[in-house]
Amino acid sequence: MRTTKHMRSITGRLVTAVITATSLTSVLAQPPQPPAGGQGRAGGGRGPATPPLIMTSTAWEDGGVIPDKYTQAAGATAPNPALSWSQVPPGTQSFVLIMNDPEPAIPAKSSRGDVTHWIVWNIPGTSTGLPEGVMAGDLPDGTKQQSLRSNGYMGPGAPPGPYHHYTFTLYAVDTKVDVAASQNAFDTRQALLNAMDGHVLGKAVLVAKFHRQ
What we know:
8 strands; alpha+beta; five-stranded antiparallel sheet
């Protein structure tokens, strides 16, 4: 009797072990499942990734030399180059453009370490670029602008020597930015960056080199 009970106990344990091993093998064989819920603005990461915002200019290739026509070599009233952008993120309500020189020739001109050459904000979200020679001041479509010296574009002006890398940065924003121009363009720029915090949908950068011959 004891032998029969002992054999039944061993058989039961063997059956349980086989079932457990089979279940574990089945679980391990299944592909990993994506986490529940969405991730970011792209809709949970299950669809195609949102393409990046792109900005270009017909005046020069990214990282190349900007023509003198758009610089202080042509005078203080040189026009801005035309800029175009594409692959605008869904939900964009306005654009902000910041052009700065992170390598100023005379740091004393800017206590913050660089020069603000052009800031343009509240560009309508339906816009696909800026034309060459944008007029100074507030524009009829609500666009506002400022630079170190005026309320319009200020072209590159690096002296002879190493190239300076003028950086055009475009932000796609999900709202209009309620910022007024201050006396100092850098302060306006900082106010814009603070106001955009948490509202940027996309960013594109275009770099132009320049120095006087």
